[in-house]
Amino acid sequence: MPFLSRVNIYPIKSLDGIGVDAAKVLPSGALEHDREFAIFDEQGRLVNGKRTAQVHRLQSSFDLSAGTISHQVHGRDRQKTFRIDDDRQDLELWLGEYFGFRVELRRIPLGLPDHGLTPGPSVISTASLEKACEWFDHIGVSQTRQRFRANLEIAGVPAFWEDGLIGQPNMVREFQIGDVRFESVCPCERCVVPSRDSRTGIGYRGFQRLLATKRKETLPSWSPLSSFRHFYYFGVLTRVPLFEPGKVLKVGDQVRFQAPLQQTRT
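The chain above was modelled as a monomer; its predicted structure follows.
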């Protein structure tokens, strides 16, 4: 029986995540505290991993109950802790010195997902992460997890089980984790971020080509990726139907399918 084995949230977009035992679903479909904050420059442009590899060298840890974040630059001993609300100005100054330009840390109460039409949590299986580790030298499960940054991790299933949540293009499938219903919308098309070491920011040469090649070679019978334009996909994007916000996902919740494939809403 598939079950939810991990819940990962990323309090500041593009920075490190933390594992939690439970997470509430927000009205947007996002998880509480996931991508709740984001860093912007003076022109209002997002500072993220797609823009600069510097974000990977910025090691962060969070204490949600205390509302604090601790930063440490990779390779340096000194760690600095801030209260996200009370020390906001000092935190922005510290981040600005690190990035080399002035920044603003903004709170986005309903989260800031990468994909506006699929604001629900992303889903991947533990077996998929483990399989990817076989393809790349010296990259373990923990590092792979940090590279792909999925919210919900499913265990008790084979590699690329999550592909079965997707139909042909423009089709969705309803499924349920614990008390929460989801609609799978599409596979997650990957950017440059997974190709970089999540600690040093150093790129893995040929990562995109190798991942796409291996995905094609190991494509399970239930995967629809042969109908898509390439194979550089890993994980599934979702959205949450009405009346689900306020419900809580918990590690250990079972996964059940609710309905057959249906046409995507526009």
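The helical segments are 54-57, 88-99, 126-135, 141-148, 207-217.
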